[in-house]
Amino acid sequence: MTATEPADAAERRSAEPVVCYDVENLPPVELDRYERARQSLAKVDEVLVPPRQARTFHVAAGQFFRINSVEGSQVGDLNLFNEHDLNERFFSGKTRQLHASHLTRGDRMWSNLPHLRPMATITHDTLEWYGWDDDGGGVHDVIGTRCDPYTQQTLNGADYHHCCHSNLTRALADETGQEMADIEHHVHDVLNVFMCTGFTRDTQQYFMKASPVRPGDYIEFVAEIDLLGALSACPGGDCSASHSDDEAACYPLLVEVFDCTDDSMSGWTPSAANEYDRSHGR
Questions:
Q1: To the nearest 5 percent, what fractions of the chain are helix, strand and coil?
Q2: For residue 42, what is the enclosing H or E element?
Q3: 58 vs 228: CA distance, rounded Å
Q4: How far apart are the first and last CA of the chain?
Q5: How many CB atoms lie within 10 A of CB 151?
Q6: What is the residue extent of each domain of the chain?
Q7: Per-residue CA distances from 249 to 118, 217, 259 (Å)
Q8: What does residue 121 show for φ and ψ, rounded to 5 degrees?
Q9: How far apart are CA 216 and CA 231, in angstroms?
Q10: Confidence (pTM)
Q11: pLDDT digits (tens, 9 = 90+) for 7-31
Q12: Which of 261, 260, 269, 234 lies closest to 248 in space, CA to CA?
């Protein structure tokens, strides 16, 4: 039975929204320093991620890395880990609360509790111009979880093994030498790189639409700690139509890792773990 609307419903709905966290108190982002450093970057490594597959890569603290569109419009699902401790990993929910539903230059990717520190900061984004479209869509979201075979089985009664969750699981198992059953729980909610998403205005359902990314576009980060990254080239391709199947046209993604070759990063230090004493009132 539908609930009865109270007499003061309009008054309740008219409450002023309040942003939950005062981001002015976050540690400052040194964008001027990073922009100077960007002028002297030298590539030291690259990893090509094949369509409908995932690959891992390593980035030392203070290095920069880029995710590039190289052949066609393609979205990617990004996981980040502390290279020395897989239990510290990207926390999409807190990142969303501290920044926004979609990330761009100057935003950070934060790690999970109890660490809660910046793992990577976005230093350049060739799709920064996109902003918000008329449907409420934006690029690089931290609201979608990742496509996974369990949801596919639930909705369609079929096993599909190239969902991003499975891709990332295989890549992490290959990187660590562990069995997939032992490593799968480390795969976590992602930064949906290049993906254009939002919520429908009528039913507030999560939607995707054709990504605006084109070959030559990239998103760039500086590593705030030593990172192990895992990137899946999503089976949805540009996510304009189908998802979790082999129907969409898919393309590789290129990860590049760079060193700064001048003194722009001199005196820079990696981010420190959160200082909360973990007593929890006891």
A1: 20, 30, 50
A2: strand 41-49
A3: 5
A4: 45
A5: 16
A6: 44-215+222-252
A7: 34, 18, 33
A8: -120, 135
A9: 18
A10: 0.96
A11: 999 999 999 999 999 888 898 999 9
A12: 234
